[in-house]
C-alpha cells in the first residue's frame, strides 16, 4: 500500500520534562475567557486522526473516550495506537490537556477525544485508504469535530467523499493548511484534505501574530491560529515545543468545541455545521495579511466583546462631542 499521506511537516524546537503553564497559544486565542464563563468543551467529542497517542500521559487522563488503529503498526491491531512519532500526542494535548498546575492545559479541557491512528511509524506516513477509513469511522461514531494535521499532494475522490459525508452529518472538519509556503501570498500551495472547500483550513501565525513564513497560501484558507513554538504533550509524560500548521489546526478544533458550547447555550438549540462555522468566523480578527494567507483572520474567541467595547467607546465619544 503506497504511503502518500504524511504528517504536515513540523519542527521540534525543544523537549522538556515539565511545563507548568497555560500555553501561550491557548492564551492568545482567548480560550481562558470562555473557561471563565463556564465553557470548557463539555459533552463534545473530537476525533484526532494522526499518529496515535500516549493514552497514559498524565495530562490526558480522562480525556480519551475510545481509540482505533487503521494502520499496519503493531500488526494492525485495531486497539493499539502506540504513538511512535509523538505528533499525535502533541496535537491531543493542544486540544484537551488538563494539567495546568504541573503540565499544560489544552484549549478545550473538558472535551473528549476519539483517537484514530491513520499514520504509522516514526516518520508518520500513511495511505489515503487509512485516512479515509478513519474519517468514515469518526462519522459513524457521530463525533462533533474531526482534527487532521496531515496531508498529501493528490486530490483523491474517496477521501473527498468521506469528508463531504462527514460535513453532511454536521461534523466540523478541521485541517492544517500545510507548510509548503514560500512566504509569498500570490503563489498557491495546496495540500489535501486541507484544499477541499468543505473543510476548515487553518494557516499558522507566530505568538506575536505574524504570518508564519512556512504557511501555505491559497483561496481555501479559512482562519489562522498559533503555530510557532507551541508547547504540548509528547509520549513518556513529557512535553515539547513544536512549530507548524500541524499545531495551528488543533487550536481551532479545540476552539470550535468551546464555540459549540457557548453558541448552543445562547441559542438554546443545536447548531448545524454551517452555523457553527459562522460562529467561529464571528470570532476572528483580521491581521492585515492577504486573504490567501489569513482567510478570515486569527481565531480570537472574545472578538464580539472586543467589537462591542469599541462601538460603545465610539458612542461615548460621539455623545460628548470628542
Automatic annotation (TrEMBL):
Entry's Gene Ontology BP terms: proteolysis
EC numbers on record: 3.4.21.-
Domain Peptidase S8/S53 residues, every copy: 41-285
Subcellular localization: Secreted
CDD domains in the record: Peptidases_S8_Subtilisin_subset
GO molecular function: peptidase activity
Keywords attached to this entry: Calcium, Hydrolase, Metal-binding, Protease, Secreted, Serine protease
Record lineage: Bacteria, Bacillati, Bacillota, Bacilli, Bacillales
Cofactor(s) needed: Ca(2+)
Enzyme class (EC, first level): hydrolase
Keyword Lipid biosynthesis: no
Gene3D superfamilies, A to Z: Peptidase S8/S53 domain
Protein name (record): Major intracellular serine protease
Record bears the keyword Calcium: yes
Residues of the active site: 50 (charge relay system), 87 (charge relay system), 246 (charge relay system)
